[in-house]
Structures are given as structure tokens and as C-alpha cells.
Amino acid sequence: MTLHSAGENALILYLGDETSAEVSARVQAAATAIESALGAELVDLVPSYASLLIIYDAFLTDHLHVRAKVHKALANLETTESGAEASTVVLPVYYAPESGEDLEALADRAKLSVDDVIQIHSQMEYRVYAIGFAPGFAYLGEVDPRIAAPRLTTPRTKVPRGAVAIADRQTAVYPAVSPGGWNLIGRCPIRMFNPQSNPTMPVSVGDRVRFEPIDRQRFFDLGGELS
């Protein structure tokens, strides 16, 4: 673990140099410990694959004080609980060529049937490694290597909201219409970001996600849209 300055009221903590479930769990444990240690002095914690951005209130504390508290919290990390139990979130997905434009091409490249790709993708449990690119865009890993696929050579200018996609060994659900170069394999009717909801996102970093195949009618019943 290494701690560095990240601005006038922020520190960044690095907890590893790889993407893995173990490092992600370490990030979550550190976040829990630091949140407890800083209390009202804390403005925000931003977890990522192997790091944790710590933003503090410069009117209440200073860099040296926060650094000392973080070191003390981390010193007890190995002997304390690893933090709150991660939630498991089940997201319904309508897998089909009409909802996932790259599903058949991905299956052909992997020398699998479309049904095989759907089964492999939906039987895995994924960890939320990071949330970024856009509000609610959760990077989930890791995809089974049999269906891992490189990003598209030419990204699309418009990917629909709810598109379920694969890039390398990560998978994600696009929370809003946006450009994107991931391979589209289905559509999820659940909103991944809603500023009017509390919480605004159905998943958080550290959560586990499973995808549940649904049929076309169920997709529409849950509010899904095909465009």
C-alpha cells in the first residue's frame, strides 16, 4: 500500500498493481476503515480497480493529519473485518441479435453457438471493479476467456441505453446513449443511473453482479426499449 498527494485536499491510496477480486476486496476494506477513521473530515471516497481517492474537507483538517489517520486505519486493516458484506445484484438481460448487434459475430469468432455465449456470460458472477466513463457505467470482471473479445476497430457513435457489452475480459451495461466500442450482446431494461432515485445506481464498487436471461416480452414488461 502506498499513499500519495492528489491535490490540495486529496490523497490517493494504491493497494495493488493488478486487477483482481482480491485487490478489489482490499480497496473496499480500506474504504470502510478510512471512512470510519476520518468521519466528518471526509468529503468523498472514490474507489477504482486498485486505488482509492480520498477527498477531505480542507476547512476541518490538513494533509498531514489525514495522512496520519489513514496510516493508522490501514495498520489495523489486516486484523479487522473486511468491511460491509458485498451485495449481489441480479440484472435481467434480453440476449438476441436484435438487442445485441455483435452477439452473432462474437459467437462466430469464439467458435461457439449464440446459446453458448449467452450461457457462459450469464453463468458467471462479476465484481464491480470501478464506476466511470459515465455515471452508472460499471466495469465488471472478469469475463470467461472463451467469450472475451477486443474492442471494435471503429467505435459506434451511438450505443443505446441498457446495451450489455463485452470488451476484452470486462463486461458492462451502458447507462445512457453514448459513443462506445464494446461488443454488444444484449439489452438490460434496468436503469443503471437515475439521478431521481436513492441510491442513484443499483450497484457500487465491490458488489457482485449476475445476469439473468429473459425473453423479449419480459424485457418490454420491465420497461426495456429497442431502438
List key phrases describing it.
Gyrase A, domain 2; Cyclophilin; 7-stranded mixed sheet; 4-stranded antiparallel sheet; 5 helices; 24% helix
Could you explain the architecture of this structure?
The protein has 227 residues and is of the alpha+beta class. It folds into 2 domains: 2-79, Gyrase A, domain 2 (2-Layer Sandwich), CATH 3.30.1360; 88-221, Cyclophilin-like (Cyclophilin), CATH 2.40.100.10. The chain has helices spanning 21-38, 63-75, 103-110, 114-123, 216-221; strands at 2-5, 10-14, 42-47, 51-56, 88-93, 126-131, 138-141, 156-159, 163-167, 170-173, 178-180, 183-187, 208-213. A 7-stranded mixed β-sheet has the order 5-13-6-7-10-9-12. The protein has a 4-stranded antiparallel β-sheet with strand order 1-2-4-3, covered by helices on one side. A hairpin with a 4-residue loop joins strand 1 and strand 2 (10-14). Helix 1 (21-38) packs across helix 2 (63-75). The radius of gyration is 19 Å and the shape is elongated. Mean pLDDT is 91; it is low at 79-83.
Summarize the structure.
With 227 residues, the chain is of the alpha+beta class.
Envelope shape? elongated
> How would you sum up the major sheet?
7 strands, mixed
CATH domain class of the largest domain: Mainly Beta
Report the mean per-residue pLDDT as an integer.
91
Sequence stretches where pLDDT stays below 50 over 5 or more residues = 79-83
Number of helices: 5
Q: What's the N-to-C terminus distance?
A: 46 Å
Strand order, largest beta sheet: 5-13-6-7-10-9-12
User: How many whole angstroms does the radius of gyration measure?
Assistant: 19 Å
Give me the secondary-structure category.
alpha+beta
CATH topology of the largest domain: Cyclophilin
CATH superfamily of the largest domain: Cyclophilin-like
